Amino acid sequence: MPKVEIGSITMQLNRKAIKNLHISVLPPDGRVRVSAPESMTETAIRMAVISRIPWIKKQQSDFAKQPRQSDREMVSGECHYLWGRRYRLNLIERSGKHEIKLGRGRLHLYANTATTLE
User: Fold this and answer.
1) H-helix or E-strand containing 53?
2) Is 76 helix (H, G, I), strand (E, B) or coil?
3) Which pLDDT belongs to residue 117?
4) What is the distance between the alpha carbons of residues 82 and 17, in angstroms, rounded to a whole number?
5) Which of 11, 12, 97, 115 lies most in the core, judged by the most C-beta atoms within 10 Å?
6) Helix (H) or strand (E) holding 97
7) Do 109 and 87 have their domain in common?
8) Rounded Cα distance, 66 and 72, in Å
9) How many domains does the structure of the chain reveal?
10) d(CA 87, CA 77)
């Protein structure tokens, strides 16, 4: 995908068989993606993006303010999200194969005692 720069904003330009221009600011880092009709000139695309720069900057600022998920230590009691639901981790060390089971709001992780986070 070609990249276009306007001021301090770098955006990915994707030309498609669509009728209207679409500007997206993507989480978590605020990358900008522009989907434009194949028939639209680059000048027209630039003018449309320039008119939306305040909105783009606001969206990027909002993403920058959002807290990010902390690093996981993989210890019992830690919360993990799976399919949009929160589960508490129950780490069970044992010999043999690794295994994960879900049950009653818990994520049971059976891991070999020699296992590391890497």
Assistant:
1) helix 53-65
2) coil
3) 65
4) 36
5) 11
6) none
7) yes
8) 18
9) 2
10) 9
Q: What backbone torsions phi and psi does residue 101 show, to the nearest 5 degrees?
A: -135, 145
- Check whether residue 80 and residue 59 sit in a common domain: no
Distance CA 113, CA 110 (A): 9
Residues 43 and 75 in one domain: no
Query: pLDDT, tens digit, for every residue of 33-68?
Result: 999 999 999 999 999 999 999 999 999 999 888 877
Give the closest residue to 14 by CA, choosing from 24, 26, 29, 6: 24
* Cα–Cα distance for residue pair 87/85, rounded to 1 Å: 7
| 3-state secondary structure string across 10-34 | EEEEEEECCCCCEEEEECCCCEEEE
Q: Name the DSSP letter for residue 72.
A: P
- C-alpha span between 66 and 75 (Å, rounded): 25
Predicted model pTM: 0.60
Assigned token pair, 31: 């990358």
Range of the domain at 31: 3-65
